[in-house]
Design a protein that fits this description.
CATH topology: Rossmann fold
Strand content: 5-15%
Oligomer: single chain
Structural class: alpha/beta
Distance between the termini: 15 Å
Number of helices: 6
Number of strands: 7
Shape: globular
Helix content: 40-55%
CATH superfamily: 5'-nuclease
Number of domains: 1
């Protein structure tokens, strides 16, 4: 079992059976310890992407209420670090949610990042350390 910070992609894929990586996300999530850490920008993205599946949106609320997902990040407390990350990776460009996840990986150092996004292989913790990823390319 392993601790993880969850990105939007696998969360949506897990809840939407029509998603390309649904089976992969469902299989991987079984090996993760709960709670999975999440930030509000990821939650907002997932809710938007699941708008066509109101039942899946309700499941997200359930996962937060029952502790399977834990909101574990305060944007206001990390704004300088987020700005620095956003500037450093402006050539990608880095989404706000991605910056939050990288910052969370810096704070929760032993957590892997559960993602479908290949940009996380480029992002670095504290400017130099590779992120530990749970990604389809790493299997």
């Amino acid at each position: 079992m392993r601790d993880a910070i969850v990105d939007t992609g696998p969360l949506v894929a897990f809840l939407d059976r029509t998603e390309r990586y649904h089976a992969w996300a469902k299989d991987r999530i079984k090996n993760l310890d709960t709670p999975l850490l999440i930030c509000e920008p990821v939650l907002a993205e997932a809710m938007y992407l699941l708008a066509h599946l109101p039942a899946a949106q309700q499941i997200l609320f359930d996962y937060i209420e029952n502790g399977a997902l834990r909101l574990a990040f305060r944007v206001d407390e990390n704004l300088p670090a987020l700005r620095k990350l956003h500037q450093k990776y402006s050539d990608r460009p880095m989404s706000f949610a991605d910056a939050c996840i990288v910052r969370m990986a810096e704070i929760h150092n032993r957590h892997a990042v559960f993602t479908l996004d290949s940009d996380f292989s480029v992002y670095r913790k504290h400017g130099r350390g590779a992120l530990t990823l749970i990604h389809p390319a790493t299997i």
